[in-house]
Each structure stands twice: as structure tokens, then as C-alpha cells.
What we know:
The protein is mainly α. The protein has one domain (about 30-50, about 80-290): MetI-like fold, CATH 1.10.3720.10. Helix content is about 70%, strand content about 0%. It contains 12 helices and no strands. Helix 8 (about 170-185) packs antiparallel against helix 10 and helix 10 (about 200-235) packs parallel to helix 11 (about 250-255). The protein is globular and about 75 Å long. The two termini are about 40 Å apart.
Amino acid sequence: xxxxxxxxxxxxxxxxxxLWGKILRHKGILFGGGIVAVMVIVAVLAPLIAPYDPYAxxxxxxxxxxxxxxxxxxxxxxxxxxxxxxxxSRLMHGARISxxxxxxxxxxxxxxxxxLGVVAGYFGGRVDTAITFLxxxxxxxxxxxxxxxxxxxxxxxxxxxxxxxxxLLWHQFAIVARAVTLQIRDMDYITAARxxxxxxxxxxxTEVMPNLMNQIIVVLTLTMASAIVIEAALSFLGVGVxxxxxxxxxxxxxxxxxIFFDPWLVMIPGAALFALVLSINxxxxxxxxxxxxxxxN
Length: 297
């Protein structure tokens, strides 16, 4: 009798199973995450799956239209640019540049801004005043203009763009981290950790930081998307990543002179940039929903 009752007891799903269930039911995560995953795979495997060398020129084959337009062929499915370079191959390799810049910029900004925000919110007083002053100064400086000036002075390269953007977009993390830390620093579990003798470093790492991750995820995705757009803008203006690197911003800039007769030269990298930024934002918004403590759907 006891065995029969034991077999009928309902199983309680684990927190991991509940989280995965929410993820699989969230349309934003599935759509945005699917696009991001495809672009990441394409970017990683670009040297292996790209049909041509993205730097190889062939003036005989220049400005061939995509396959869906008159005169297009499957030899170059997305056509060729003004130097005869295969557009599909350049688009694949351009995804690597955008994702590297977005991820590295978000990582640098996240570490710097979150650290400053947590320290300001937890310790308060003069420390908070000093860091808040830094954030206020940063907010008064237009990011794109500073990036233009610094990159122009130092010289455009992948490393320079990543470092410049990483040290220009940290304030978003600092503002969010400070606000959340101010809300939770006097909570009961923080007080209990102090009472049992936990060090400040341990409290910040094991009690404060886990409660920030939900908000940090959203800021991380927004910063990554912003970095990708700013890099494309800098490359479009000629002060970001330098040719012949196949940046999507460079591809748009090179195609603008042919926009009236060959608009696909601008539309294809523009559509790829739009899809990547939109999918990153959808993914971040979905992760915020499924990891929220209040259990939003």
C-alpha cells in the first residue's frame, strides 16, 4: 500500500527544469536566440564555409547583382561589390567583426561599470558621491563624438575600437548596479551575512552580485547592440575598422556611391546589421523575463 502511494506522489520540477521550460515557451528568446546562434555559427565557421576569399578581387566580375535579380547567378548568390569581391563571403566575415566588437565591448564595460556601481551603492558616502560624479560627467559627454575623436587621433583598428567603446559605455552598468545595490544592501539576508562575520568581498560576490544579474543581462545585451551600431557608424565614416576588413559599416559606406543603381550593396549589410541588433535585444529582453524573481512571462 505504501509503495502504491509513493508511486503516485507528484514529482517537483527542479529550478533548472522550470527555467528551461520558460525559455522554450518564450517566443522572443527562441526567435532572437535562434538568429544570434545562426550568426555566431556563421561567424565562427566563416573561414571554412565562405565560398570565396573575402579579400580576393576580380574586376571582371564587379557589381554582379544577387541571384534574385536579373543578371545574377548562383556563382555569387549575393553578388559582388565594386572590386569584384564576393558579397556573401564578406558578409560572413563581417559578422565576426561585429560579434567580436559587441561581445568584447560589453565585457569590458560590464566589468568596469558593474564594479563601480556596486561599490558606490554598497559603501555610499563619499565613495558614492565620487562615483556618481564620474557617471554624471560621462553622461554629459556624447559617446559617438568622443569615439570619433579618440579613434581619429589614435588610429582606427579592431583593438582600438573595442577599447574605446569599452571605456565609453560603462556608465549604463554603473547606473543600474548602483540603483539595485542601494535597494538590497539593507535587506535581511545582507544583514545576516554581516552578523555571521562574512567579509565585504564575500557579501558583494555571493549576496549582492547574484541579485544584480537579472538587470545586468538586459544592460549587457543593450550595450552589445549599441557597440555594434556605433562600430558600424565609425566604419561608415571611415574612422573605425579600416579596409579591407569586411566590416558591415565599411560595406555600407562602399556601397553608398552605387545606391541609386545597385541599392542591394547597402541593403544587404544593412539588413544583416538590423537583424543582429534586433535579435540581441529580443534575446536580452526574453532572458530578463524568464529570470525575473517575480516570475514574469
